[in-house]
TrEMBL record:
Protein name: ATP-dependent RNA helicase RhlE
Enzyme class at the top of the EC tree: hydrolase
PANTHER family named among the record's database cross-references: ATP-DEPENDENT RNA HELICASE RHLE, ATP-DEPENDENT RNA HELICASE RHLE-RELATED
Name of the gene encoding the protein in the UniProt record: rhlE_4
Pfam families on file: DEAD, Helicase_C
GO CC annotation terms, alphabetical: cytosol
Organism for this UniProt entry: mine drainage metagenome
Length: 372
């Protein structure tokens, strides 16, 4: 069982040993290849990323690997399965579909990897995962990876692992050591102006911008393109082809900014990503750790900037509590959040007190004597 923050090399930790073991088992037998390793992951982007890692690490091994996921035609995937596969990387929904159609047999499986288990829970896939586990051979090696360990995930790990060795690289609450963090207090309506202002700095070579909603991602991308900042957005409403095209363009430097929701960004691994910008703070503090882990990967340096409006201060407090550190505040910027004036404070106080029973001060003894 591996527990480590994002960007610490979890994919290599399971991919390289699996490739080595399967390579050592290779024979000249021409019999059809059987699936011997299954890597289950929550999102299409992460599945593609893991498949690319197997491609790089196993280039000269002669082992076949295939990635399957939903949102696209299954024909190319079923054709690949018919040709024979040693290593299968899959998302839960598409895997179950193809298992039910008898395109996938797992009876020869030796290695099962459950990656990003906590995100499986967040995205509602945990029941699909449990169904898949019931179809696996009892005799197998199981590798279980999760950046965080909520109660339900801990229970799942106990049910599928037998005397596991636990490797915890860094605490769940830790943030990447080489990521420089800063927060800007800004009114909600001024966030887009602040973002455009910051992107005038050419030192921001590439930026992954996070929003909480799909609509918010599209809106931010539209504003940036209007300001002549080449931008695209990825989220669940985009087709797989559109998401992959946007990600490829971002990696190639054809667009400078990629705006993403948390689920869509899971698995994004962009080499030398200079900045992560939290346009909106996440309401789950662990998500902050996942977000900023997109930069500063594998020991590299990076910068994470966060915008915080009045309503998000409670989210910032929760992030400080989880990470046990206060994020430095940038005071000098043109869209600094204004503090309410004395008149506004007084008006708000009167407004909140208007329905309360008027307060009448008690009269002193001398006042009572004079009134008699």
């Amino acid at each position: 069982m591996g527990c480590a923050q994002t960007g610490t090399g979890k994919t290599a930790a399971f991919a390289i040993p699996i490739l080595q073991k399967l390579y050592n088992q290779k024979t000249e037998d021409k019999a059809p290849r059987q699936i011997k390793a299954l890597i289950l992951t929550p999102t299409r982007e992460l599945a593609i990323q893991i498949n690319e890692s197997f491609e790089a690490y196993g280039k000269h091994t002669g082992l076949n690997h295939l990635v399957i996921f939903g949102g696209v035609s299954q024909q190319a995937q079923t054709n690949g399965l018919r040709r024979g596969v040693d290593i299968l990387i899959a998302t839960p929904g598409r895997l179950l579909d193809l298992m039910q159609q008898r395109f996938v047999s797992l009876q020869h499986l030796q290695f099962f990897v459950l990656d990003e288990a906590d995100r499986m829970l967040d995205m509602g896939f945990i029941h699909d995962v449990k169904k898949i586990i019931t179809k696996l051979p009892a005799k197998r090696q199981t590798l279980f990876f999760s950046a965080t360990m909520p109660t339900e995930i801990a229970k799942l790990s106990q049910s599928i692992l037998s005397n596991p060795v636990k490797v915890e690289v860094t605490p769940v609450s830790s943030t990447a050591e080489k990521v420089e963090q800063a927060v800007y207090f800004v009114e909600k309506d001024d966030k887009k102006h602040l973002l455009i202002h910051l992107l005038k700095d050419k030192n921001i070579a590439s930026a992954l911008v996070f929003t909480r909603t799909k609509h918010g991602a599209d809106k931010v991308a539209k504003e940036l393109n209007k300001a002549n900042v080449k931008t695209d957005a990825i989220h669940g409403n985009k087709s797989q082809n559109a998401r992959q095209r946007a990600l490829t363009n971002f990696k190639n430097g054809q667009i400078r900014v990629l705006v993403a929701t948390d689920i869509a960004a899971r698995g994004i691994d962009v080499e030398d990503l200079s900045h992560v910008i939290n346009f909106e703070l996440p309401n789950i503090p662990e998500t902050y750790v996942h977000r900023i882990g997109r930069t500063g990967r594998a020991g590299a340096s990076g910068i994470a900037l966060s915008f915080c409006d009045r309503e998000e201060k409670v989210f910032l407090r929760d992030i400080h509590k989880l990470t046990a550190q206060a994020i430095p505040v940038v005071d000098e910027h043109p869209y600094k959040m204004l503090q309410p004036s004395y008149e506004e404070t007084k008006a708000n106080h009167q407004k909140t007190s208007s329905n309360a029973r008027p307060f009448a001060p008690r009269r002193s003894m001398s006042q009572r004597r004079w009134s008699q």
